[in-house]
């Protein structure tokens, strides 16, 4: 009888040890998967080895005294066109430049135009930063409006992605911002959110020729 009891206890111990080992292995695998997922999110954009990146700080510093009547005037600058065509490689440079706060309105406008080929998430990040700078009195309301709709080459990242959740949150933040005083801008925001502006502008493009 005593031997049977010892055998039973021994068997239970072995099962408990096996179960504990299984749980440890499962936990380690879960941690490994989480680490791998985090690393995937942090993978930086890889430059084409044949692409020679422009020195963005030097580029934007030279534009601090520019006087632009229309943003399309920037298209005569080969360096600007290069940056715009490879915007994903310069988005961090732009965010860093704006975060430092040492800029004028023209330089910010150039940054906005140069980033018009970004994907919607990256562009919303830029708009969020511009909204924050506006809230801290670092930028005028006109620049915030330019970020939403830059009137440049019919680029309408925000307007055409009106159903994107992050775009909706951005527009709602602007709509609920008591600091925003331009009545026309305020009246326009519901039309952007509903998709009305996107539809009307697409019809305008079709009727007037699209770039």
Q: Which properties best describe this structure?
A:
211 residues, mainly alpha, 0% strand, globular
Describe the structure.
The protein has helices spanning 2-41, 56-61, 78-85, 87-100, 105-114, 120-135, 141-148, 157-160, 165-175, 183-194, 196-208. It is mostly helical and 211 residues long. It is built from 11 helices and no strands. The longest helix is centred in the first third of the chain and has 40 residues, at 2-41. It has one domain (56-208).
**Strand fraction band?**
under 5%
Structural category is: mainly alpha
Sketch the topology as an H/E string, one letter per element.
HHHHHHHHHHH
Question: Outline, from the CA principal axes?
Answer: globular
The N- to C-terminal Cα distance equals: 92 Å
**Number of helices in the DSSP assignment:** 11
Summed up, the domain count is: 1
| Uncertain residue ranges | 1-10, 15-43
Q: What is the share of helical residues? A: 55-70%
**Average pLDDT reading:** 83
Number of DSSP strands? 0
What is the subunit arrangement here?
single chain
Query: What is the makeup of the main sheet?
Result: none
What's the gyration radius in Å? 27 Å
